[in-house]
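Duplicate of #3305? Posting structure anyway:
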């Protein structure tokens, strides 16, 4: 009995320490419009982030018999595997049953997995969608049955079945990528001009437009004054998007850009990539047929391959989104929903999914580069040195 109580307290303490890396105490009514959230973030994830809750944590009594469905988009990308296993581990530690599914980036597969979760008695659904617009019908059933839905990382669009959204501040991710390029190229003091190319993500993922816009809002003034030049002429979102965020798609577009615009040895000074899978495609294209000076290349997720590329000087930075802190926040929200408590949100203005604003909790992303990756990624226990060899 005593052990159970201690376990429950430990579990609460662990979740609390994880949440500290997710923006600190939640301010239920303190909306922080993404467009204003541009100041430099302290690397919050380092000291506070603890390894995910272990099985020592005894189930919370009220959670017993409650099932949570967790739908993840794919196993292809490292981050979703980590998100899935963090969610599973932390939900189980809190005493919930978990139905965790990955959908191979196949929308129909994700729809039928969610149907099964509904039919199999899940009490709450946590969904990282493949295509934000494709879940309306299945989620109408969830709503009819009174099953709350939390959109995880990616907003689910055009359905009133979504109760809450938890993510990292997507606009801030883009801002930090743009600022990194601005600062590394010293755009405020150097004359330039500098050559820039841009690669963003999947048009069906609502996040992609936020990443893109956050970065472009920083870089656009330099493009307008001619200090940044886009030789390919491709800057509109639709021109620079990458279907399925696939490295292969990013690589083939980058190869075309290089052979059409930089084959004569002209330098590319920076390549804005919205995430690591697209950055890896651009790196592969440059390795294959680019002869100029290596450009600054941005990314996001701190995938192992991209951190290795960072150590090898092939990718300059990545955004670190500690999936442990997002999972901890969502597990907390699940508990609050099920217990009828006020659910922590810190943004009630930014994310309109087409049916109105979805109350959101935005965790703070930080950037990692060669100078701080050890502190952020290794000292916090996210990776071991051996993972990065
Ligand atoms: C996530 C990114 C990820 C991308 C590709 C986005 O929705 O926020 O972290 O890199 O999807 O999976």
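Output from current build:
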């Amino acid at each position: 009995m005593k052990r159970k109580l201690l376990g429950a307290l430990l579990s609460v303490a662990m979740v609390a320490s994880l949440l500290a890396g997710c923006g600190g105490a939640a301010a239920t009514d303190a909306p922080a419009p993404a467009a204003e959230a541009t100041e430099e973030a302290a690397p919050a994830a380092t000291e506070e982030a603890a390894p995910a809750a272990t099985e020592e944590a005894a189930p919370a009594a009220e959670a017993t018999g409650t099932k949570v469905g967790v739908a993840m988009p794919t196993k292809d990308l490292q981050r979703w595997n980590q998100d899935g296993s963090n969610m599973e581990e932390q939900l189980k530690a809190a005493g919930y049953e978990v139905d965790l599914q990955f959908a191979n980036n196949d929308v129909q597969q994700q729809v039928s997995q969610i149907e099964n979760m509904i039919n199999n008695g899940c009490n709450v659904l946590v969904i990282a969608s493949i295509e934000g617009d494709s879940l309306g019908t299945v989620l109408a059933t969830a709503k009819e049955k009174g099953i709350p839905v939390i959109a995880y990382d990616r907003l689910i669009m055009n359905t009133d079945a979504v109760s809450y959204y938890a993510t990292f501040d997507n606009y801030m991710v883009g801002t930090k990528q743009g600022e990194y390029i601005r600062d590394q190229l010293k755009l405020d003091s150097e004359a330039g001009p500098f050559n820039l190319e841009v690669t963003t993500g999947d048009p069906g993922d609502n996040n992609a437009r936020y990443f893109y816009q956050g970065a472009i809002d920083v870089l656009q003034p330099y493009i307008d004054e001619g200090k940044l030049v886009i030789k390919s002429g491709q800057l509109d979102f639709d021109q620079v998007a990458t279907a399925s965020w696939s490295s292969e798609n990013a690589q083939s577009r980058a190869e075309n850009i290089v052979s059409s615009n930089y084959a004569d040895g002209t330098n590319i000074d920076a390549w804005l990539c919205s995430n690591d899978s697209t950055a890896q495609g651009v790196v592969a294209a440059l390795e294959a047929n680019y002869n100029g000076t290596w450009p600054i290349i941005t990314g996001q997720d701190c995938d192992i391959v991209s951190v290795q590329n960072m150590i090898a000087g092939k990718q300059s930075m990545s955004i670190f989104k500690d999936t442990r802190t997002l999972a901890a926040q969502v597990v907390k929200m699940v508990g609050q929903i099920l217990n009828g408590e006020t659910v922590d949100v810190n943004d009630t203005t930014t994310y309109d999914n087409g049916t109105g604003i979805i109350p959101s909790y935005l965790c703070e992303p930080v950037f990692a580069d060669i100078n701080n990756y050890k502190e952020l990624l290794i000292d916090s226990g996210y990776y071991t040195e051996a993972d990065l060899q």
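Confirmed duplicate; merging threads. Residues 170-320 form a domain with the Rossmann fold fold (CATH 3.40.50.2300). Residues 2-20 form the longest helix (19 residues).
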